[in-house]
Amino acid sequence: MTAHNGSDLVLTASLLRLAEWLASEGYRFTTVTPATHARVLARGGPEAARNLRDVFGWSRPFDGGLLPQAALDPLRAAQLLLPAGGGLLRSAVRFSTLGKHLYAHSSFPTVQDDAVFFGPDTYRFAQLIEDELKHQPLPRDGRILDVGCGSGAGGIAAALSAPNSPSKLVLADINPRALRFAAANAAHANCGSARLVEGDLYGAVDGQFDLIVANPPYLNDSSQRTYRHGGGSFGEALSGRIVREGLPRLAPGGRLVLYTGATIVDGVDTLLDILRPQLEGCGWPWRYRELDPDVFGEELETPAYAQADRIAAVALVLQRHDPSVRPHLHPARA
């Protein structure tokens, strides 16, 4: 279990307080890609916020009089209220709607190394998990691990998809700030019993799991920001580690659901080329498919992707054999 200091607890409590207040105000916001966000903000120049969506969604600067004390107090307590110049303020946290709940994550732009990311990938990741668990529900009291959890959205989506089968949820991340955000998001979604673990992938968790979900960083980021840089030639290294090190962590019948990015070079999926020997070597059924053929197209303008055709969002579902259960998946060749 991760140890918490006073500032950690204040941050989590403040985020939860803000989420509950925003929900009571009927707040909703869908987070877009950074490129789209920048385009929206560019309309009309540095316009000050006029409403809650401007403050907590679009990250616009605002006059302090726009918010009541119910919002300003937790922002100040958690040091999430920043000066924006000209007497204006800015929130260092955003809140996005996913299903019935709000999720706290870092404000735009996410330039800090310990930024907590949430965006279109998160929506696709949560939907992938929900669809998978509709087809094959978790066993009762199943163990769920969200590895590299970030905001915790994947693990929370899995837990919420099993309302009649209470599950044991573990949220793990190497970024301590992400864990504080994940703790608040889990509490807001009534998953407050989730266990929070700080460490590198599986290094700080014990035992096996009935479901492992992961949406790791998958880009080659020149600044090597933790939430964005996946390592390797194209950002694929972390995804490879999640699969390789995750195999022995699956309980019999357990599944690994990986949402990540794959760089396509001369028509070849470079991630699948790396994963295939491990997948075929374990002898377990698996399925690999593209969910979106073209994401983060602006990255093709950077040196790391000079030879790439495109970056695709992909999904891998791998299931460990259980002699007592007929496999849900069939061996795949993508």
Quick description:
The protein is of the alpha/beta class and 334 residues long. It has 9 helices and 12 strands.
Description:
This protein is α/β, with parallel strands linked by helices and 334 residues long. The protein has 2 domains: 101 residues, no CATH class; 200 residues, Vaccinia Virus protein VP39 (Rossmann fold, 3-Layer(aba) Sandwich), CATH 3.40.50.150. The protein has 9 helices and 12 strands. The strands form 3 sheets. Strands 5, 6, 7, 8, 9, 10, 11 and 12 form an 8-stranded mixed sheet that branches. A two-stranded antiparallel ribbon has the order 1-2. β5, α6 and β6 form a beta-alpha-beta unit. α1 packs antiparallel against α4 and α8 packs parallel to α9. The two termini are 39 Å apart. The mean pLDDT is 92.
The CATH architecture classification of the largest domain is: 3-Layer(aba) Sandwich
Helix-strand string: HHHHEEEEHEHEHEEHEEHEE
Distance between the termini: 39 Å
Provide the residue-averaged pLDDT: 92
Overall spatial form: globular
Helix content: 25-40%
Subunit organisation of the chains: single chain
Radius of gyration: 20 Å
CATH topology of the largest domain: Rossmann fold
**Class of secondary structure makeup:** alpha/beta
